[in-house]
Fold this sequence. Notes:
This protein is mainly α and about 200 residues long. Helix content is about 80%, strand content about 0%.
Amino acid sequence: MGKGGGEKVSQEKYAKAVNELNAVDWFKKGYALRYRDKKNQEAMKAFDKAIEIDPNFARAYAGRAAIYNDWEQHQHALRESEQAIKLDPNHPWGFHTRGWAYIGLLNYQKAIEDLNKAIKLNPSYVYAYCHRSWAYFMLKNYHQALEDANKAIELDPEFSIAYFRRGRALASLNKLQDAIKDFDKAIKLDPTSSWSFLHRGIHF
């Protein structure tokens, strides 16, 4: 009887381990589909599958939140982010995606609070600096926006959006030649950056 019970426990542990591994595999697939292949529809399905297998997989909720933000469905992103934070309050991604959602909902102060938390958890979180730069910019705190954009560029010199953010801050501080250089750099790194073309044209 004891032996049979032990075998049952072992089988349950094995099944749980297999499920967790499968959830991680689906998460990794979703992450690659979004960030490498830029295929959000397929990535969302992969994150859905990870959560179906493991409903406590915090990063999969954050992954879904990021996609909802891409789709400008910021209320959905907010809910997914809050679930990610509830499940793992020590992981920065949930705070970042919630901060991004708050930017989309025009609540810039709350966005900054969340992005501060993300950066505290990961001081090298380039996307969090870039989004916080935009939140400060929208609050007309151009010096702080510039500082965060500088930090993002320091962390990733090939990050086109950070140059665009810095260009906007510089233009608002009447440093137009420097702003144009940053818009040029953003376009060089990402020739599809229509906003960089637009603002370079405005300030040229």
